[in-house]
Write a structure and sequence with these properties.
Layout: E1 2-10, E2 15-18, H1 21-27, E3 39-41, H2 50-57, E4 64-69, E5 83-87, H3 88-93, E6 103-106, E7 109-117, E8 120-124, E9 134-144, H4 147-158, E10 167-172, E11 175-179, H5 182-185, H6 190-204, E12 210-214
Parallel strand pairs: 11-12
Antiparallel strand pairs: 1-2, 1-3, 1-9, 4-9, 5-8, 6-7, 7-8, 10-11
Helix pairs in contact: 4-6
């Protein structure tokens, strides 16, 4: 069973993340760069908080619920040992010209620069929500059992589009044809997203033998120009 869910993560005062455009706009965190669609939850694959995952698996389609997570059930307690001090020279060797508030990636870790003083830079590698008691609002939009619908959900999630924007059909036994929307196949990393989709399909849809991705381009009229 696959699940499509809408999630909003907040505390008593602030909304931090949401998959719902209306909520994002109301909270003042809306971004045109974000795709607001339900996320795909696949048991054994999705990296959700265990308590949240357990609750989703026991929910019915259309059900809404609210869950409170203590820090240890979410992003962990704040760990002062994850606050590190580096020399400016060390960071500059990594191509980083530090300023306060900058998000950096060092040794495969995400950190935020807290201060820059006298050639020394303090970086906090804790998760931004570490130490916070969080409230998760969840809606189980859809439970998916059909293999073709699961295939569509995998591709839609991988390309950050709504499942309704993906068209798929069986062309013969075990072979599927998937039509992508134009905004999906013009992405620079379109190929790697296809590979990611196929990897999930191989692990979870054993009856699928092959997938053909269809990309259709409309030819503009003679008085129109192609845009890149």
């Amino acid at each position: 069973m696959f699940y499509l869910v809408n999630l909003t993560i907040r505390d008593e005062n602030t909304v931090y993340q949401t998959t719902v455009e209306e909520v994002a706009r109301k909270a003042g965190i809306y971004s045109e760069k974000v795709s607001y669609n339900p996320i795909l939850v696949i048991p054994g694959e999705s990296k959700l908080f265990p308590k949240l995952m357990e609750r989703i698996l026991s929910s019915e389609e259309g059900e809404r619920f609210e869950l409170t997570l203590e820090p240890e059930e979410a992003y962990g307690n704040y760990d002062r040992s994850k606050v590190k001090v580096f020399s400016v020279k060390r960071l500059e060797k990594e191509g980083i010209h530090p300023h306060v508030g900058e998000v950096i990636y060092l040794d495969d870790q995400r950190g935020v620069i807290q201060s820059v003083n006298g050639g020394r830079v303090t970086v906090d590698f804790n998760h931004p929500l570490a130490g916070k008691r969080l409230i998760v609002e969840c809606e189980v939009v859809k439970k998916i059992e059909d293999d073709l619908e699961k295939l569509k959900a995998i591709v839609a999630d991988m390309f950050d589009v709504g499942i309704e924007e993906i068209t798929a059909r069986w062309v013969e036994d075990g072979k599927a044809e998937v039509q992508l929307p134009p905004k999906a196949y013009v992405l620079r990393d379109s190929y790697s997203r296809k590979i990611g989709s196929l990897s999930l399909i191989m692990r979870h849809l054993k009856g699928v033998k092959a997938v053909r991705f269809i990309e259709e381009f409309d030819i503009p009229k003679s008085d129109q120009k192609l845009t890149s």
